[in-house]
Structures are given as structure tokens and as C-alpha cells.
Design goal:
Radius of gyration: 23 Å
Number of strands: 21
Structural class: alpha/beta
Shape: globular
Strand order of the largest sheet: 8-9-7-10-11-12-13-14-15
Number of helices: 15
Largest sheet: 9 strands, mixed
Length: 434
Amino acid sequence: MTTIPELYSLFLQYRSVCTDSRKVAAGDLFFALRGPSFDGNKYAADALKKGAAYAIIDNADFAISDKYLLVPDALLALQQLARHHRNHLNIPFIAIAGSNGKTTTKELLRAVLSTSFETFATPGNFNNQIGVPLSIFMIPERTEVAIIEMGARHMGDIKELCEICNPTHGLVTNNGKDHLETFGSLENTLKTNAELYDHLATNNGLAFINIRHQDLMGAAAKVKNIFSYGDHQQAEIRGSIASLFPYLRVRYVTEQAKINIESHLIGQYNFENIMAAVAVGKHFGVNDRLIAKAIADYVPSNNRSQLLQQGSNTFIMDAYNANPSSMKEALDNFALIDHPNKVVILGDMLELGPTSQEEHLLTVLQLKKIPLSKIILIGPEFGRVKDKLDCLHFETAEEGQQWFAQENFDHTLFLLKGSRGIAVEKVLGDWYKP
């Protein structure tokens, strides 16, 4: 069996790891992972033909030359090697967990810290048991601060990711109703997010917390080092919303001055994401002017908090994903915007398990309280509760697109939100290319 120190000596030589035989490049260390419907061992030979330096496998039947390195479990070896490498990196690791806003917060932190440090942040959504190790392998040698996003679908996931990347600092954006199908309850979601705090408490780390989230403050009770932020008087970094539309404008207070930030983000729910970036920047000594400019220069993409214009119509594109908590916040924010002609296009919230019908009904009841010109609901879950209000319903976004193409909207403000599997943005047709 090949040991982790032996694998690490090879990693230091080649510095490139791959788990997808279709994407192998010359010099990669290919890890033959298994899944419910695939066995990476079967693709090891193909990876070597494409130029992989070695194939790390966990089935001895495939070891036909010294280019095949046998380990007990390829995924475990990948994770242990990543931890081994991380422990050789004497730099701050900031872990970001939470139910909503992780990726936006990660990108804002990257923007702020990059003004003063060589900063690495998780690429894309590499935030699970495979993505986090791969992210660690990607960290350039010159890096001074690493930001690692952590996603979770089951209790214990954050604990496992903390064991891999050993964060010195941590931030839980919030606790909400995400992945209820697997978590089962809001309490279990909180316990899972709190696994980051447990790690920080044990390892004398520092937690950044929005002081308004009393559930998170309680969950972090054992963490000795806390840096608070938010709109509360007792927050170490205190801010407020100056204006909401068209873009979010935030003001925060220091001993020396009041700092104004003109962002390209929409929605009051992004206030705490901005303040998290401010708090992290202040903790690491970034100049206020650089913090404000970095946040102001950040432009969201990929269906996250985007404000789009098409003719006289304006679209709030927040359709990357959705759960009951983020849906409620988006609708709360939309209700605050003063506009004479507002339309919502909402897609199903997925992975809610037995609570799905109840949660979609709650969204429908919220919609009834908001003055709207039209309500368009998409997906079978909304289809079960659509009769509770006056709306249009389509089973798929493609069906909705056929309707949308025949309409002639003018001077209308739209909100689009739904789970990724619904792809609500397809309603807009060809003119919108994320």
C-alpha cells in the first residue's frame, strides 16, 4: 500500500491532482474515486494514457504496472493527502459555512483581502468532500490567506471538512431552511453549521459572527475569540443600510470615520454579506478605502444578485438557488421596492422532503400580501398549491418561456428566483445568457 507521505512527495513533484479522467492533463495525479454509478478504477488506464503521472486506485485488480498506486480508499487518500498538504501551509485558513450567501460572501472576502494579500478562494462550488481537497491542492505557493467554502447536506459534513482543511478562522453566514430533506429540521441545520464553531473552539480559532443572529451567537458560546459585526450597537464593526434600490448602499462606522460603500449587489439580505467582508478586512488590517473600493468593484455573476436591464424592463436575477429562508428574504426585499408594476417568476424549492408542500404554501401566503401585477410559478411543487392564489403556473421553465415570449411587458420590475434544478432564468429565452 502507498502511504500518504509517499503520495505527498509525488504531489510536491507534480503539483496537480485530478479526479475526472475526461479532464486529465499531463503530469496529473489521478485519484480513481467511486460513486453510486461509476468506478474510477475502470478509468485509471485511460487517465495514464492521457498523460497522468500516476493513478491512485483502491482495487488491486487494476494495478498492472508501477504507475498504479494502491491505497485502501481513494477518496480517503485524497482527503488525507489534502490535510497533509494543508498542515504544511502556515497561513490563515478562513472557512465559510452557512445556509445562504456563502458564495457571495466568499467572493467579497476574496475581493477585500486581495487588495493587501496574495489570496486564494475556493473556485466555483468546490465546497464538498471532494471539492475542498481539490481546492487545497490548487493553492499557489505564494498564497498568504486561503478562503475555503464549505457546503453541507448531512450532519457531520462540516466537521469532516474542518478535519481536512483545519481552518484558523470561520464564518457562518446564517442558519436557514436548506436541504431539509436530509437535515430533517432547522435544529439539525444549526448543529451542522455549528460544527465549524466546535472546531474553532477546540483549536483556539476565531469566529466572525453577525451579532444579530442569536442562534449563531449561542452555538458559538465555546469559541473564545469572536469578532462581531452587523447593525447592532454592540457589534465591533457596525453598519447600516443607506439605500436599497437600484443597488445596495451600506455605511459602516469606525472610530475615525463613516465609510460609504456603493455596491453592485441587490437586496437587503446582502447587507450581512457585505458586513462580513468588512469585518474580515478590518480584522486583517485592510485599509478602509481599499475595503470600500473592493466591495464597490465586485460585480456578481452566474444568476446571483444580478440587476439586469432589457429595454424598459428591469430584472432582479437571483435564480442560482433557493430554499424557504432565501425565498422569504428575496420576497421581503422585493416588497420594499417602490415600483408600480412588479412581477415575480418563482421556481420550486427542491430538497425539502416531507416539508415541501408546507414550505411552498408559506411562500404562496407571503405572495398574497405583496402588491404584484403578475405571479408566475414554475414546477410541480408550486403546482400543488397554486390554487391558493391568482397566478399563472407552468410545469417547466421552458413552458414558461413560450408564454413569456408572447407577452409585451413594458416598464416592469421582475424578480426571478428558484432552485438550480428548475433553471428559472430559461423563462427569459435567448436574450439572457448567464
